[in-house]
């Protein structure tokens, strides 16, 4: 039977779906000549460049996997920016000419970012809304306070060299505070210099890198600093790590291809290791530096 008339309805506009990252690792690389942010799959394949303007690093996923915060010097000095997971819709949140704002981390509800700024003359942790409003300073110690990471329970881990009681130098320790800046506590409390805390997805553990003797390796500890366990034992330096969404795997950078006897300033590559330790799996094979891997929340 042949229809006698054809009626074509006006197409209903379909909203463009917001890009969402699923099981992606964002990282920074100098493979294009300057630092840019890329995505890859957890096996190292499917590399995609997200940024191209200025120098960009320190990517951090929003809890819904739709946005990345990052540090960019495209406007002259370091500022906190956000962009969608496909690199579109770039926005500057901090706008602080003359000071460096860097290393953002998202609140569990995705409404705020904590970051490091030296706008007071020394490094402190600040919080700002994702719309750029509500700037608030959380630390005021004249020591260097940096590298914040926000847990799912709402605590903020950071690095501070304010306490000399564990050795006689200004070596940094891992601190934890509430997200209003109260209850600042040294949780690593040992003679080693400790850097770059990152909460496990369930907030029960913190991975960090520690300078022990002449090596720089990954350790995990419980949120209160107990149960400290060494995960890697590499001759060359290990850099900041992040967790897979299931908490079973860590992704991190490691100095690779070093001349014999040299521990750092070689070629950083990105690797994974089980969160209980063991053999490393190498993900990048680029003569340029690759670092700062962060695993999407799902
Ligand atoms: Ca700035
Ligand atoms: Ca400070
Ligand atoms: Ca220490
Ligand atoms: Ca490399």
Account of the 3D structure:
With 298 residues, this protein is an all-beta fold. The protein has one domain: TolB, C-terminal domain (Neuraminidase), CATH 2.120.10. Helices cover 0% and strands 43% of the residues. The protein has strands spanning 25-29, 36-40, 48-49, 56-61, 67-72, 79-84, 91-92, 101-106, 112-117, 124-129, 136-137, 145-150, 155-160, 173-178, 185-186, 193-199, 205-212, 215-222, 229-230, 238-243, 249-256, 267-274, 281-282, 290-295. A hairpin with a 6-residue loop joins strand 9 and strand 10 (124-129). It is globular. The model has no long low-confidence stretch (mean pLDDT 94). Bound molecules: calcium ion (4 copies).
Summarize the structure.
With 298 residues, the protein is mostly beta strands. It is 0% helix and 43% strand. The strands form six sheets. The chain has a four-stranded antiparallel β-sheet with strand order 3-2-1-24, with no helix packed on it.
